[in-house]
Design brief:
about 350 residues, alpha/beta, Aspartate Aminotransferase, domain 1, Aspartate Aminotransferase, domain 2, 2 domains, four-stranded antiparallel β-sheet, about 15% strand, globular
């Protein structure tokens, strides 16, 4: 490494590894919590006609007003609450963190949790505090309250359902955290479509509560669109950090179109939810496999043997899932599989049976 790099690049950045996305070429892709279904042909044709009249030579609406109105209705954002869009949830996490960042300030979240909370805290020069989850990955209320009292976090992120564990935290424990927090609490509801539970209706009850959503898990991952809802006073400050034109015109037009056909996306969500239950039952019947209850579109499971070996064997059988064993701690021995189409789930189960035999 050159002297100039070591001089100018912050040491905490040099110590990081870039977020790795494996090449799924030729594999059954069950690693990234994507909706496996595409649109029906007639819907694709209608969408392409919409794109024909989209002006690519012009900048997009910087406020994405039409799309914001569509999202407000689709996501049931309470009246009087503001809305801001981001290039995926990741950008919204970064905007929030940039807006509150100062030396010694803390971002706090339960662990295991979404890796980007820790990474973005580092990007923004903030301290990160991870609070271990309790038994069966439940939110440890007492540990969270103690950490809040000690560290006085600027932002607390609570994923609901949690990633990578898939469970919903107890709502009363969540409320206790919101009430004790000196700063913001952001409830990350990326998987809410599969959970039938949300803190969105509680916006306005707490002056420090924000709710974050994404359309990725609904089948629109390629659009990279997230939204943040909450009190206008907070979002007005965050909007100063948001880069102009962050939601491109193709995303605006395509997401607006897709949400006009919500019945298609909702039918796919119902199918995935039903298949999740069937997949969990099948995993639970396998010797040496312990699946954890999930309210998302993936299932975390622990294997009795070496998880790295099982992961490699699955890949050799043409199935790509997520290996969480390298994270260690509570995730030692764990793998995570996204719920795919029925035939993909069957192929995964056959490969897993071979891998653990």
């Amino acid at each position: 490494m050159s002297d100039k790099i070591t001089h100018w690049i912050r040491p905490e950045i040099r110590a990081l590894s870039a977020y790795h996305v494996p090449d799924p070429d030729g594999l059954i892709k069950l690693d990234a919590m994507e909706n496996p279904y595409t649109w029906p042909p007639e819907m694709v044709g209608e969408w392409l006609e919409r794109l024909r009249t989209t002006a690519l030579n012009r900048y997009p609406d910087p406020a994405a007003r039409a799309l914001s109105a569509r999202l407000r209705e689709a996501m049931a954002v309470p009246a009087g609450q503001a809305l801001m869009l981001g290039n995926g949830s990741d950008e919204l996490i970064q905007i929030i963190s940039q807006a509150v960042a100062a030396p010694g300030r803390v971002i706090l979240a339960p662990e295991p949790g979404f890796v980007m909370y820790r990474m973005i805290a580092t990007f923004c020069g903030m301290d990160y505090v991870g609070v271990p989850l309790g038994k069966d990955f439940a939110l440890d209320r007492e540990a969270m309250l103690a950490a809040i009292a000690e560290h006085q976090p600027a932002v607390i992120f609570l994923a609901y359902p949690n990633n990578p564990t898939g469970n919903l935290f107890d709502a009363a424990d969540m409320q206790a955290v919101i009430e004790a927090a000196p700063g913001l609490v952001v409830v990350d509801e990326a998987y809410t479509a599969f959970a039938d539970a949300s803190f969105m209706p509680h916006l306005g009850e707490f002056d420090n509560l924000l709710v974050m959503r994404t359309v990725s898990k609904m089948g629109l991952a390629g659009l990279r669109l997230g939204l943040l809802a909450g009190p206008g006073a907070w979002l007005e400050e965050f909007d100063k950090v948001r880069l102009p034109y962050n939601i491109n015109v193709l995303t605006q037009v395509s997401a607006d179109f897709a949400l006009q056909h919500r019945e298609v996306l909702e039918a796919q969500t119902r199918q995935i939810t039903a298949d999740r239950e069937a997949l969990w039952q099948a995993l639970n019947a396998l010797p040496g496999v312990t699946p954890y209850p999930s309210r998302a579109n993936f299932i975390l499971f622990r294997v009795a043997g070496d998880a790295d070996t099982v992961f490699a064997a699955l890949k050799a059988h043409g199935v790509l899932i997520k290996n969480l064993n390298p994270a260690g701690g509570a995730l030692a021995g764990c793998l995570r599989v996204t719920v795919g189409k029925p035939e993909e789930n069957s192929a995964f189960l056959q490969a897993l049976q071979s891998a653990i035999a």
